[in-house]
Amino acid sequence: PQDGSRLQDFDVLCMCDSNAQWYYDTDSHKLDVESKLRDLVAGYRSVLFLGVSMGGFAALSYAHLADTVAVFGPQTDLTRSHLRPGFKPECLVAASRQLQDNVHRALCRGTRIEYHVAMEDHLLYARFLPLPRGSLIVHPTSGRIARVLERNGILVPLLIDLFAELQSSSKVRPIAASQALARQLSAEAFADARAWDWGDAGE
Question: Is 0.70 topped by the overall pTM?
């Protein structure tokens, strides 16, 4: 059912970076997100990170702490993004590399990553984050993808399915495809890899 009646109770933590620094520690403002999240998730059997846009950047940046990560139109490389914090160039590079490194760590531990994007600028950002086959879901629409999915009655059933999968006794973790990609690409190679080539006829 789409009303969520099949779900068991679960806890929700909502985070908002009111400084708009993409949940990243800077010299002038330490958020210490990773250690706080690490302490919180230690008490749970299963953890799901959700994020949209800047929140999607955060969910991916700490993906290694979760069993499932679902993002909607995130930025993946702040040096290329049209929306980004007012960091020095070297901090934009460092924040983006942290995301890449931690996504690679997440894949190593078998985390499931589901990346939703519309056919607009955010699709170009998806190219800079190689993920297992089936992880990238391109919706044939434009606009803010989470909002579009919500207005069309798609978002809530999608989220219910994600929660239900984590609560299921038949949940499979680690995800073999995630670990296979991590074995194929070292952390260094992952940072330089692309999800697809423009001339790729295999997809």
Answer: yes
